[in-house]
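Objective 1.3, modelling of assemblies. Example input:
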Amino acid sequence: MPNLSNSPRPGVLARYGALLDLPPHTIPVTLQEGDTPLIPMPRLAEELGGGFELFVKFEGMNPTGSFKDRGMTVAISEAFGRGARSVICASTGNTAASAAAYAARAGMRAVVIIPEGKVAAGKLAGAVAYGAEVIQIEGSFDDALSLVVQISQHHPIALVNSLNPYRLEGQKTAAFEICDQLGTAPDWLCLPVGNAGNITSYWMGFRQYHTLKGTGLPRILGVQAAGSAPLVLGHPVEHPETVATAIRIGKPARGEQALEAAEQSQGRIIAVTDEEILHMQRRLAASGVWVEPASAAGLAGLARQLREGQLELSELRGKRVVGICTGHGLKDPEIIAHSMPAPRRLPARLAALEDALLGAA
Amino acid sequence: MPNLSNSPRPGVLARYGALLDLPPHTIPVTLQEGDTPLIPMPRLAEELGGGFELFVKFEGMNPTGSFKDRGMTVAISEAFGRGARSVICASTGNTAASAAAYAARAGMRAVVIIPEGKVAAGKLAGAVAYGAEVIQIEGSFDDALSLVVQISQHHPIALVNSLNPYRLEGQKTAAFEICDQLGTAPDWLCLPVGNAGNITSYWMGFRQYHTLKGTGLPRILGVQAAGSAPLVLGHPVEHPETVATAIRIGKPARGEQALEAAEQSQGRIIAVTDEEILHMQRRLAASGVWVEPASAAGLAGLARQLREGQLELSELRGKRVVGICTGHGLKDPEIIAHSMPAPRRLPARLAALEDALLGAA
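Predicted structure (tokens):
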């Protein structure tokens, strides 16, 4: 067997397992997730005013294309180790694909419960590709979540929604990695907030690493979409709406903890419009990093704070800011394809191409 | 600035640049490509007969979701370093997305020329997302390729199709990485063959590493799709057809070199049907690795060779086999979505879900 501990990407349990609160029966089930790039974004930093260092932590470069793999490898490893042979979750997106992939890796059965209503086939394709059974219930997402909780309480079917505490343990590893990549925690961490498990995990992870290694703590800017901003509004949103489907959640499971993380870190939780999100998606891609819309929310929030003066450029001078991009643009090509103009058509002649390209150059 | 040379993924130029034949003016333009996982596939090896070690080199975990990023970082770094400010390619798929991403990273203009006919919007979404200009010509893919060659000869617009020799230099790094991950070259390397640049690069890379480090040489099994198999048939295919769009090429640019690589390595080039490709795509996903159809061709070829006895299991005993998976399944979700059954529907009640899941268990 190859020496996978020498591998550039041994997976988050091999790398950070000793720092995670896991039962001894855990048996690693990995697809070599984690070790995602921390990409410098000097041009975008200049456009936002300059004087600080900006990085994107590109979590879309996990095996199933989203950050969910960090928590899922841990949740599935724990479930597999205690002998569970089936996993279940309520999801129509990134969680379902990740659960299906890790269950497949372990040889376990994966069941995905989706709510009533129109389902985007592209969003489910990942889960189906990895062999999950998909069941649609005649009810809402909350009904679906309630059902998977109940069935996991009565039967040996492991729940892998983010109510599963091992998901959060695994997601802490992103904070560890950022500290290892930068040498310390960044000064600010900007990230999208939907169900709020991720912001909760980052804050847990940064605090733990600081206690162990004195890496410092970031201030956290959590960013919701304006049409789906329960933590900003202070109450659940019955019908959340946003193009950033990965954070279209009206009743976050970890809302309290998210608010605590923002407060304890001397940060804040704000909302941005869909237009701001899509604009930042384009700006990131213009530096070579294509992310799904939700992933752009964190830095869209930073841009808004700077524009409106809630955050002064002088406060950022010489500081390091990390934006978390949770999913790859390939997760939602429709958002691009739908607004794509028809390509310009030309005769197949050099002169025509020269006119088109050099005339405009 | 962070110490990116300590980063787990500094990019292929930082890691292997000294082994690539590049002009001194080259200036690295990176998205931290490479360092892709080499994933053990013990279950699939058993299903194929067992007694050997099988790994997937998952090149879909590059920044734009395909192996093209290895060659593109190098081609763009060379072009940028010599002062080119525009790049051009003929492509409707992975090459276009990669060219657009690295051009964006460098602040260069990217132009993508596509042939006449129906264009799958999803396939172009990547290039458009990264800001490429897309021009459709009234002609074939060959016409498009001919045009981009001509315009790059007459104007300071860098050609980044695989005719660009720096693309092949960059793609060699995948061979280096496999040797570094395994300690030596594998005994067999199985990979899809379309335009044949990749098989050519792997063979160049393994030979170079063997000369430098004595890592040995693999036998190479190159696999084409039956409807698009010019190297097996011995003549160009006018209208290539296969679900494996990434290798749907009737006149490979590097056909001669591919045949040489197969012969010199004591390997071979064979063809498999679309059914075999899609079957292997499902088998790979059943171990947690979802790839685009073309990526499954290499191991579909291995399965056929073993089934038909052209390769005896006894020959593989104790050996190490690596299958190259060139692109992520997210590159072609339609192939899954189109054949996806409608989800089963249930009332939102625990008893109904119990019946459905445990009755069938």
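The first helix of chain A runs from residue 12 to 16.
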